[in-house]
Design brief:
The protein is mainly alpha-helical. It has one domain. The chain contains 5 helices and no strands.
Length: 89
């Protein structure tokens, strides 16, 4: 079984007609794909986001910490964080 085809089929089963209903909060909030690892969740989210209708929106983030004179939180570390509810940097 081709893993990419399996993931695509899973998305199609859980989110049928995503192109027509992707802007509906009630459509999106009544469906979910659960995963065992966060890295899989990130991959699934990327595949789903690519299928949403409409223009892509880009939001910029900061890569420095306030009040960090000793540079305890370098940009590389901050960019590696993926807190729940926020997209990757």
């Amino acid at each position: 079984i081709d893993p990419k085809h399996s993931v695509s089929k899973l998305i199609n089963v859980i989110f049928p007609s995503l192109g027509q209903n992707g802007i509906s909060p009630s459509y999106i909030s009544t469906r979910a794909i659960l995963s065992t690892k966060n890295e899989y969740v990130d991959e699934l989210n990327e595949k789903l986001i690519d299928r949403f209708p409409g223009e892509e929106q880009i939001y910029y983030s900061f890569h420095s910490a306030v009040d960090d004179p000793h540079n305890y939180y370098p940009p590389e570390f901050l960019n590696s964080l993926t807190p729940n509810g926020l997209p990757p940097h």
